[in-house]
Amino acid sequence: MDWHTLLQRLFGDAHAVQADGDFLHGTAQLDGATLAIVGTTGHAPIGVALALRQARAVLDTLALHPGRAIVLLIDTQGQQLRRRDELLGINRAMAHLGCCIDQARRQGHRVIGLVYDQALSGGFITSGLIADACYALPEAEIRVMRIPAMARVTKISEERLTALSKDNPVFAPGVQNYVAMGGIRALWSGDLAAALRDALAHAPTDDVRAADGAERGGRQLAAAVVQRVLDAA
Question: Model's pTM, two decimal places?
Answer without folding.
Answer: 0.90
